[in-house]
Amino acid sequence: MEHRMIYxxxxxxxxxxxxxxxxVKIRGWVFxxxxxxxxxxxxxxxxxxxxxxxxxxxxxxSLHGDKAEAIWDSASKITLETSVELIGTVSEHPKxxxxxxxxxxxxxxxxYSPEYTIGKKEHGPDFLLDNRHLWIRSExxxxxxxxxAGIYGYIExxxxxxxxxxxxxxxxxxxxxxxxxxxxxIDYFDLGQAFLSQSGQLYLEAAIGSLGRVYDFGPVFRxxxxxxxxxxxxxxxxxxxxxxxxxxxxxxxQEKLVSYVVDKILKEYKFELSLVERDVAPxxxxxxxxxxxxxxxxVKKLQELGSSIEEGSDLGADDETILTNTYDKPIFIEKxxxxxxxxxxxxxxxxxxxxxxxxxxxxxxxxxxFGGSQREDNYDELVKRLKEHNLKTEDFQWYLDxxxxxxxxxxxxxxxxxxxxxxxxxxxxxxxxxxFPRMITRxxx
Amino acid sequence: MEHRMIYxxxxxxxxxxxxxxxxVKIRGWVFxxxxxxxxxxxxxxxxxxxxxxxxxxxxxxSLHGDKAEAIWDSASKITLETSVELIGTVSEHPKxxxxxxxxxxxxxxxxYSPEYTIGKKEHGPDFLLDNRHLWIRSExxxxxxxxxAGIYGYIExxxxxxxxxxxxxxxxxxxxxxxxxxxxxIDYFDLGQAFLSQSGQLYLEAAIGSLGRVYDFGPVFRxxxxxxxxxxxxxxxxxxxxxxxxxxxxxxxQEKLVSYVVDKILKEYKFELSLVERDVAPxxxxxxxxxxxxxxxxVKKLQELGSSIEEGSDLGADDETILTNTYDKPIFIEKxxxxxxxxxxxxxxxxxxxxxxxxxxxxxxxxxxFGGSQREDNYDELVKRLKEHNLKTEDFQWYLDxxxxxxxxxxxxxxxxxxxxxxxxxxxxxxxxxxFPRMITRxxx
Lengths: 445, 445
Fold this sequence. Notes:
2 copies of one chain form a homodimer.
Chain A (H helix, E strand, L loop, with lengths): L1 H6 L15 E13 L3 E7 L4 E7 H8 L3 H9 L6 E10 L7 E12 L13 H6 L1 H4 L3 H23 L3 E2 L5 E2 L11 E3 L5 E4 L4 H11 L1 E9 L12 E10 L3 H22 L1 H6 L5 H4 L6 E4 H10 L12 H10 L4 E4 L12 E2 L2 E5 L1 E6 L4 E8 L4 H10 L8 H5 L8 E7 H9 L20
Parallel strand pairs in A: 3-5, 6-10, 12-13
Antiparallel strand pairs in A: 1-2, 1-4, 2-3, 4-5, 7-9, 8-9, 10-11, 11-18, 13-16, 14-15, 16-17, 17-18
Helix pairs in contact in A: 2-3, 6-8, 6-15
């Protein structure tokens, strides 16, 4: 028996279907136990998938004779989150084609768990977040984390296939260019303060002079005292920047990227989407062309829909919700008033009161997931903008160099990963979209 | 003419070979200019590659008649780093098969550059680092950054192909578990201090209970006052962790991963390796099996080689250099004395004075690029270790939970991306391996 225990092939639960009627070994955690006296049903997961393992007293006895009792005994003591190694035969579920079960012949327990912290009862969000290291073991959190990893991967895949090179912008940045109110500062040796980055964009704009098309994808930090379902203190951001791309092509790039990611997730993460109970019908509509409106048109539409927004003001979160509940596909809102947008955005040559920018709003009330713009590429104009925004040109000397030595038309955009995951998974709150969320009231575990 | 300027297809320089004898448009920067009076040779790059563009006065005249002079004039004013759009015919180099040139028929200049900061003369490292935003435009830095992106991608590719799921560990962590001397702290709202992560390992150990095999790959921070060619304040680290993997298999995973990455870089980045003048012969030897020795054997070998290292002490950087100059393949050094290693490493059941860990040293004097270990999975043992290392168990309650609820044997390892890039590119200093290096004396640009 020891011999078989060692030499039976260990397989992942996701691959069970390939081993129908074979004897295999699996290793994992028991997340549900049910017993009918003579049969124990164990729900087991190993990170790759989930399976029902069936331990039958009668069949153990016919296999092992006198030794059956010890095996039965160790199986009957199994509790939630007990870690196990099981040998058994793979068979198709008698009623559900395509679903497989394991008929257990041998049981090894790594560790019996004491009563599990996250039992079957309902828990509040604070309790779950305090136990995030265990909460992630639930099927639903597993599915969200898998989809997050999938989205990250498909974004990178699309970017690479379209000529973008990874370029890791620095996190520690020298000066609080746009004020310190939402920045975290650290003491940097003998060089005064350094600040945690909120976006790598300015560095990517320098990088296009080397690599042409670039992106970064890492953590960014906002010391913002916002406590909403859409805010995290630490979140993951993808910034992309491309030389010789102008406003219109910039939006096409964003449209293609979103369509690609949604399409791949729908195809490759069906099971995970079902675990988070995502209605996939709205996602299946995410195909080019998306809706488009200028900021001016959006304001007019919002006023019709009952918003009190005024011409020339930025859209609030509520406005985005109203608008994106009205349309069944993502909406590009372009050409915002220059006053409400960042200094580096290029003015529309046809109407200098607006900039060549876009937000991309996800439907179903989700709101902004992308923001992009063509960048001001004229040195003198850029200096003028810096002054208008009360920014010190000396902090931006290196950045201004990019407009001095071979300036080119260029554009870029950013994606907040967690908001994208929340939309694709259909989640109300971004706190479930990241492994260990950091918020104004939470820095643990 | 305007018509052709708009409708000629824009292509990337790397794709020129596919357009032999066709008329195409390229956009980029001029990084070298040579003129023989009637012919101007422009070296142009666009981020995807490099090409020589030839502007000939005679051929312009035959194409454009009277308008030729204006085109010739704009071409002859081109300086280093001038940004251009060129239309021309692609032809194979008369003497070098497989190399292509562009015979220019039309020239558009986005911006003429003033005298370029980084001219042709030799510059010191401080000057180059002050101008890092421009220095990255050099062929050599372009090649290093491309190889870095390639290495990042192949690490991820191998991990995904082998069942590892991305899991982004948090950067902001609640407590200075192992002392504050090398940690950066920030003021975290009303919750006291938070600290910038040095490794996501402990979080990954919790994640295996959900996802089985996981990795993270992001920036980490060391407030260490080291000023050596191997230290950065901010660097990129990949941590991987796998349930049910023990020490021996952990080393096999590392061996396969390194071999895969080196093999792919040799195949796909030949041109970039030639630009950094890497002798690829030593890299071509990087195949399984690597050398292996225990720490005890390494100390003995080092003493033979003239090191003053004593039994039971950790290897210094000099020791690693001596050792890795002696062998032509990576060396696993396993089973270090438990005193010199971290609290979470599992003791060797056969000799509890050592732990089941390994460093992986790169040849040619490079030293440590990977570090890994099997983790202590017994709750009581782990508590004992924490106390021996003077660590507070209350800081580790959530981590200890992973040894309480279904503890399993598991192992993991970490890669410092910049040291790996330095070795594969054959660089002396890690400062060239990251887009914008942060060191004890530098936080800019």
